[in-house]
Amino acid sequence: MHRVLIVGAGATGSSAALRLRQLGVEAKLEVWEKARGPGGRMSTNRQDIDGSTVRADMGAQYLSLDPADAASTQVSELLLAKGICAKVSPAQLSATPERQRDWEHLAGTAGGVNDALKALIEE
């Protein structure tokens, strides 16, 4: 059996792991990440304050996916079906001129947006 090393568990590395599995590549996938877990720039900080866990997405606060792209649609459907992410209305986002108006935006539900990347690696 072949072995595949994916360096980095950010958006690209996590997506590569998912795509290789979807394609049925018969290989042992190994993902190396510098940080303590998947996420890359989508890290989530968790703090215990007075017995409650407070979380803050320190990097990207949401994912932007192109609905015209089949792979993006598959990722969106997976994350929504698992309840890891929820859709964010474009009205809730800043009016950045570069933002694609027809794209879909997803935010993490309970654990932070980096849970989406963990799910892609584990899928």
From TrEMBL:
- Which Pfam families does the annotation name? NAD_binding_8 (PF13450)
InterPro entries to which the protein is assigned, alphabetical:
FAD/NAD-bd_sf, RNLS
GO MF annotation, one: oxidoreductase activity, acting on NAD(P)H
Signal peptide (UniProt feature, chain positions): none
* GO CC term (a single one): extracellular region
Gene3D superfamilies attached here?
Answer: 3.90.660.10, FAD/NAD(P)-binding domain (3.50.50.60)
Q: What is this protein called?
A: Rnls protein
- Please give the organism: Symbiodinium natans
**Gene for this protein?**
Rnls
